[in-house]
């Protein structure tokens, strides 16, 4: 039977060492949490890195066996590959460039060469598993070369590629020394998907200007075949988030958390530690808000969860220090014996805790400088069991295209964020409910299952169309 092979750099679980034993924990990040709900069906398989260096053949064997039971197959990366392919080219070259932080980007030939080598390693792992009728779905910027590598090995196979982060404008993308090779890598796909129409438009413009292939209604005609480029805004597993938030246990926990905070109003922010998430800018806005509206001092608390991410990369280390310093300064300035303006937690939390925090919070602050989609804001909306609550959302997140009932802000405009905080904290409940229920309808309809079937249906359509083009 034909199967779906999902390939991404990171598996939806990550290995951790506990008391000498290797255990699996759920990975954070939108790709893992979003697709985590769908890959276990039938013979489907997810191929990716288990998040740790595993060198000993015995351990590798054990990890492989354990993962196999859960429909996963590991690609073991070496220390050098993690340093140069994952932390290096993926997260010090591509990530900053694609998020419009090109001043942070490093351009090093050695990192590029290891990126090519690691993509080849993923290609070999996939080729070993792929049958002629299987569909291969490659995810994200760590694997931009994989579609064309697979095409070379398996010329007739069906390959979809989805990018979870923004695609920058041509003027930014062209800064990359390996721009042509990266685009050619992606063009090995039959279908290339992005979260938004703008990402798609930027990609097509770069393909046109750098590789010289024009497009018509998203179709690019190569000499050997045609491929389609389209936008597919990713959703969440709405029923999962809405269902868990409604449970008695989550309600009980939400009450306990809330009582312990000694605040009339609670705001929540949940992010990976990343400069693209706008965490310092949000803290500056909150500090300014407390100074401008002193009547909220002692009354509003921001619960800020930051999950550690890419902590070997220099810019992430610097950001961690900046956040620690700002939180300390703001709390030092405004706290009193019974109240802290910010409750800051630098760790990952299980879904039940996250759900209780979403359920407890009157306001969610999602203020990235740039974000492909952002699933946290959708998780918050899905968790609002009584339709109260206000979402403050950055225009720079892909999700803002769908969630126009949020209070939309530009994260560079601190004064606008200050006023958005005031508006959110004083919004009458009946108005909150109008906006929240409209956002819930959108997220419920365009959920993760809808997203997967839209992508898969379009991929099948491309294959049929390619056949009819070849015979006409
Ligand atoms: P990104 O993919 O850039 O990390 P998203 O907002 O799309 O951003 O996805 C982040 C995912 O990680 C969400 O599903 C969110 O619930 C999860 N997450 C973020 N922070 C934490 C945390 N502290 N504990 C548990 N999960 C977290
Ligand atoms: O959604 C974007 C993304 O970079 C995914 O590709 C990735 O798995 C996730 O964020 C978390 O990042 P990382 O895998 O580097 O921890």
UniProtKB/TrEMBL annotation:
It catalyses: D-glucose 6-phosphate + UDP-alpha-D-glucose = alpha,alpha-trehalose 6-phosphate + UDP + H(+). Its EC number is 2.4.1.15. It comes from the Bacteria. Keywords: Glycosyltransferase, Transferase. Pathway: Glycan biosynthesis; trehalose biosynthesis. Homotetramer. Belongs to the glycosyltransferase 20 family. In the C-terminal section; belongs to the trehalose phosphatase family. This is Alpha,alpha-trehalose-phosphate synthase.
